[in-house]
Amino acid sequence: VKIGLRVLTRPLPEMLPTVYRTLGENYNERVSPSIIHEPLKAVVDQYNTSQLRETQMTPLPQDIPTYAKLLQHCCTSKNLQKLRKLHAQAIKFRISSDDFLRAKLVSAYVSCSEFSDAHFIFSRCNRHSTFLYNTLIRGYASVKEFHLSLNCFRQMIDYRKEIDQNTLPAVLKSVAGLSVLRVGKRVHGYAVVREFGSELAHCNALISMYGKCGDLSSARNVFDGMPERNLITWCAMMGGYGMHGDFEEIFGLFDGLLEMGVKPDKAAFTTVLTSCSHGGRIDKGKEYFKMMTERFGLRPSLEHYTCMVDMLGRAGRITEAKELIESMEMEPDEALWRALLGACKFHRESEITVRGRCYFI
Questions:
Q1: pLDDT tens for each residue of 113-125
Q2: Reduced to 3 states, what is the DSSP secondary structure of residue 90?
Q3: For the whole model, what pTM was predicted?
C-alpha cells in the first residue's frame, strides 16, 4: 500500500485508518494499542491518557479555525508533545478529518521532522493540494533528504498539480544537494516559462544551485541579470566561486557588495576570510578582519579566528597566529588548535606555548 511516496508493508485495514474509524464512532472508548500501526501511535496514547485524566486537562475549543492557529504555533515552536495532544483532542472532537486541519497537521508534523506521521495524514487527505506537496518537499530538503524531496516534486508533476512560487526554491536546494545539473536546468526553464525566474528567492536559489553543480557561468548569468540583489545573492555567488577556488572573483564581488552599500554579515566575512587563507592573501585578510570589527561592529566568532590562524599558519607566521589566539576573549576550539598545530608541523616548529599550554609537535 502506498502512503504518499513510501510503500508500507501492512494493508490499509490493519493500519491507522482503523484508529480513525474507532475514534470517530466510539470516542468514549479506549483504543487497543494492538490495532495501531507505528506512525501516530503516540497520538493514540495521548488520546487514551486524555480519556483517563479528562478532568485534569485544560479544556480546548472545538472549532477548526482555533485548532489551525494552535497547530501553526506548533509549526513555529516545533513542540511535538503539544502537537500530539492537539491531534488527540482533534480526533476526540471529531474534527480531525477536515482537510484544512489535516493540511495543518501535515505541516506541523513536518516541522517536527515526524515524516512517517506526516505522510500518513497526507495519504488520508481527500485533496492533495500544492500546499501539501510544498510542505513535504520543503521538509525533506530541510533535513537533507534530497532524494525524497525530489521524489515528492516528481509525484507532484505526475499528478499535474499546480506549481507555485513556493515550490521551486526547495526543489533547487535539493537539486544542488545532489548536484544533478540536468534536473536543475529543467527546473530553471520551468521557472522562466512560468515567469518565476526573475523573483529574488528563485534567483538566489538558482545561483546557489548552479554554483554547487559547478556551472559558474550560468550562476553568473543569473547574478548579472538580476534587477535587484540582497546579501543572500552576493553570498551565494561568492560561495559558488569559493567552492571552485576562484578567489579573485570573490574579492571582486565583496568589494562590489561594499560599493553597493550592502552591509556584510558574519557569513560573508567567513567566505572572504577563507578565500584569503586559501589564496595566500595575508594583507587582504588582515584588512577584512579589521574592517569586520571597526567598520561594521561585528564581533569575530571562533570560525573567523580559525580562518585567520589558518591563513597566518599557511604563510609560516606562527608567532602572529599565536599572538592572535592569545588576544581572543573566548576559548579556542578543536578546529582552531588543529589549524595552529597543523601549521607548526608543516613548518617544522617542534614546540610552541600558547595560553599557558606547551605543545610538542
A1: 999 999 989 988 8
A2: helix
A3: 0.77
